[in-house]
Amino acid sequence: MSIIFNELKYSENLLKEGFKDFISWEDLCILSRYFRYKGQKRSEIKKSIIEFYKKFSYYNEQIVGGKIDNAIKKSEKSPLRISTSVTITESEVQRIRALKNYKLEKICFVMIVLSRANKIAYNSSSSRYYLSMNLSEVLEMANVRATKNERKELKYILSNGSMVRAPEVNRMAPFNSREMHEMIFIEENSGSGINVTDFNNIISFYPQVCIQCGKDMEVGWNRKREICEECYEEQRKEVFRENAKRKYMK
To answer: Is the pLDDT higher at 248 or at 204?
Structure first.
């Protein structure tokens, strides 16, 4: 199941559109939080879920009742998650851009967006930013392809850098088999940099820029070079001038 940052909107759509054959455990938990958010108590929540269930499928208390009770109980541990947008500050963007490695930049950008969205959604008062997610999941959201060895290298760089305090290579967090990362480049008091409003396409808000001049890279240009076409051409001319100069001096 993909990450849902606005469970209020998701619940409203689920109640309207329903489900086919069976409802997932995750959806039962979200609906439980939704009805509690609406002011309902435990017995009322179960009644609302049963009514929803009967509307779209056959309800059997012996088969489904216990599952609903467990979902309602579990939902009491956290509030309904509501995140509509996340702002990454100007200083944070500059810190990410300073990496001058677009793969690493995208990974760090996705990490800080997700950790800040979690913090907002759960109304956390902590000054620290955490993300409980495996690197493979982060890479998918950052649209970064990497082999097993490349993933190990990326994890090593992250764990030894000044951006993210990541777990040791091949080591999982002690719960849920998820890797716990802490963002250590947070600068909340800086001006607004990038405002992310679509959590299903986070990386679209972070375009690649030339590592030399800072301009956005044009679509269709060879982005593996990490410099724009103008800088590349100027670089070629400089190499030509240096070669010509050495040839003349001979």
So the answer is: 204
